[in-house]
Amino acid sequence: MSWSLDLVPLPPCALLGGPPLSGLLWTVLLLFLWYCYRVGSDPPSHSGMLKSSSSRSSFSRSSSRSPVDPGHSVPKASAAITMESVEEEEGTESYLTPVLSHAPFPTDAAAGSRKLYRALQEYAKRYSWAGMGRIHKGLRNQARNNDRPSIQKPHLFYLPDVPSIPFFPRDAHRHDIEVLEASYPKILAEFQAVYQRGIDTKLGWSYQGPKGQTVFPLYTAGVCVASNCRACPCTYRTLLSLRTFISSNSLGSAGFWLLGPGATLGGAYGPTNTRLRCHLGLQTPAQCELVVGGEPQCWSEGHCLLVDDSFLHTISHNGGAEDGPRVIFSVDLWHPNVAAAERQALDYIFAPEQ
Fold this sequence. Notes:
The chain has helices spanning 12-15, 23-41, 46-64, 79-92, 97-101, 111-126, 133-140, 174-182, 184-196, 226-231, 233-240, 340-349, and strands at 167-168, 206-207, 213-220, 223-224, 254-259, 264-268, 275-283, 288-292, 295-297, 304-307, 313-317, 326-334. By secondary structure, it is an alpha+beta fold. Among the domains are: 107-147; 167-340, Sandwich (Jelly Rolls), CATH 2.60.120.
């Protein structure tokens, strides 16, 4: 005998274990279940959207501070992030912005600034753009120097973000100052020997500025004056022993500076804020005064002053003929805040032959 089992499908109401439902109630139940499903899968609320948007904005800010490989293009989907990062960089005026963004050099820049910028590009091709952010920014903004406060206005090159004060403490260049002051007797003796031969252009002297100021240069605009260095061998060797002497570019000089009685140098600015002038006093009458950035100072024989001559400065000798000239040995040293990579680049950009 064979048995067969016929399965008869049960109505939905039976599956739910309740009394039979009419077709309308069953439809309402299905619509309710569909609604619950859709609510659970909908996008987050407005507060969640704001949080997500804030996260994207935070990501954009963090990514704007990271260098971007110039060899890879940015996909179109990130256009909003790119614009946002550029706006923030412009607002914060980061000195790395010009290098990272590859912003074009101003077309209205002066010919001299364009020449310096081409030299920077050539340097970067040979070496690297690393560490060139401040120099790049300084060259781009060179035309704005006329808008700087009148108290500090270097006429050739201004390096941004460099701490500046008219007179620097000895600790800024303690080693070189101690070397110069220890060599004071030898330097003074060699100056006196040169001075006694007479002041004449044929003997290596030159006239600078107003009447009464003469210079016996050992280095001028980064070039060694060989005949004058041979006349002062001890002084020349002292220069070579300095750690921060600017001897390889046109921003650096060294020599004996004389200012006669009654002479005054009117308000002037040095060419750059990347250097400090170290004045070693050799003969300093009491009536002599140096005013830098509105701050007066007097020289002292055998001691050094560190001066940022990119500030407005005046020099005066109010003594009489019996006092003789004021004599200092002036040496240009790197500003302590200029990094080694920047010094190397400036040596290239301001090379004497350019």
